[in-house]
Design goal:
By secondary structure, the chain is mostly helical. Helix 1 packs parallel to helix 2 (53-65). A two-stranded parallel sheet has the order 1-2. The longest helix has 29 residues, at 132-160. It has one domain (9-150): Histone deacetylase domain (Arginase, Chain A). The protein is built from five helices and two strands. It is globular.
Length: 161
């Protein structure tokens, strides 16, 4: 799903909720395989998106809510602090736990050159306001997906049954 540069947590989670659960519901997979890269984070130079550990943790919780066997794969992330913090949160959520927010001081002393923050969770960013044209594009893409791709998925599934 194409998203405009600087898309943050709120819009990303909106698109996630409107796309991922219907796909999972329609396909009814036996196992969930996810690629949990973090190159979409605010401080990562690759994607120009602005996600935080907050939306990442919510997506992991949502994946867990499907109650499917789950294979979680690593992936992108050029900011090692983001990778370590996000995967710590993910591991906890995948196991039904909520990690403490403060990174232990002893760990930071040994690895302080990597971590800019002493916390696992990011401070929520100021909400990014999409220009009307960008929001219209995102809404149009969602509409297309729901009214073109989703019916094709259903049709293909019905032919398999």
């Amino acid at each position: 799903m194409p998203l405009p540069p600087s898309t943050g947590d709120e819009l990303y989670l909106k698109v996630f909720e409107e796309v991922v659960p219907p796909f999972i519901e329609e396909f009814q997979p036996d196992v969930l395989v996810t690629q949990l890269g973090v190159d979409s984070f605010e401080t990562d130079p690759l994607t120009h998106l602005s996600l935080t550990t907050n939306s990442f943790e919510k997506m992991v919780e949502r994946f867990r809510s499907f109650s499917l066997p789950w294979v979680a794969l690593g992936g992108g992330g050029y900011d090692l602090s983001n990778v370590a913090r996000a995967w710590t949160l993910a591991w906890g959520r995948m196991n039904g736990l909520s990690a403490r927010d403060v990174i232990p001081e002893a760990f930071l002393k040994r690895n302080g050159d990597i971590f800019r923050s002493a916390y696992l969770r990011d401070t929520p960013l100021t909400p990014f306001t999409l220009r009307d044209e960008e929001m219209k594009t995102v809404e149009a893409d969602l509409y297309y997906l729901k009214h073109t791709v989703f019916p094709l998925m259903r049709e293909a599934r019905e032919k398999q049954v």
